[in-house]
Amino acid sequence: MMPDTTLIDAFAGATAGVFARTVVAPIDRIKLLIQLSGSIQSESSTTTSFTKSSPIQIFKDIIQKEGILSLWRGNTPTILIEGGVTALNFVFLNKYKALISNNVLSILEQHIPSLRPENEGGIRKRRILKSFVSGGLAGATTISILYPLGFMRTRLATDVGNKAQRMYPRGMRDVFKKIWQTDGVRGFYKGYGIALISVSMHRFVYLGGYDFIKSEYDDDSHGKQRMSLGKRFCAAQLVSMAASTIHYPLDCVRRRLMMEAGKTKKERKYNNTLHCFKRVLAEEGIKGFYLGLQMNLIRCVGSALVLVSYDELKRALT
Length: 318
Hints:
Elements: H1 5-35, H2 37-43, H3 55-66, H4 75-111, H5 122-157, H6 172-183, H7 192-217, H8 229-258, H9 273-284, H10 293-317
Helix pairs in contact: 1-4, 1-10, 4-5, 5-7, 7-8, 8-10
């Protein structure tokens, strides 16, 4: 009896996500502090200007003022997020691929003859469509389900200072209580609209690109994997960096809007997505949309590790 592939996809994805994100959690926290420095400073007068400090200096300051374990502050929701996100990403990716293969392509090829497998380039076009569209849809579905956890992770990672200075000293409980009291359920979805576009774009390239590259090298007729582990990691690193760079400005706006939850209208710096775009551009220029990108590209090692770890775990389980 063959094992349930959905359960295998979920388990392999969750395990790979938790492992990789825990490894790069300190890098991710430093990236968030740089990316959201303007929003953090508006909340705490004790916060230094992270945009004027190097990542190494921020790393040293965190350890000196908050202790080494604070580098993993917010890692509990991160584990929940990444375990869930990665599991759902791969489950939905494979479900959407099956749906497109079994239903959508048969409809499309009636109107677009070039998609028919017997035509020149038809098989490759089908792979491109199947991989990239499935990747984008998987990202959109997953972010819709798990957005509140990502919201809480961002608030905790940017909660700076010692216990007496922090806004959320008890972690997720304090975030939930404060946002619920001020904004209700809607507060946990601050920035959701731009997040839906941003994450869909990221997964379109990240999941779709990696899946397409693998499909180009895989021998479908024999089920054998032609790509070595090293080549797969290089491919994963390439699509991770490309996806992160492309969607980073949208991610910047999304996270800044997350930081507005729990504030009164007078306290809020950004009224909506468009206002945030305009204000960042006017006050910080294009550079404002790419704060922390350097650290994010380093963190892409973890994203690449997720893809490769998932492959290896799935192969071991099947």
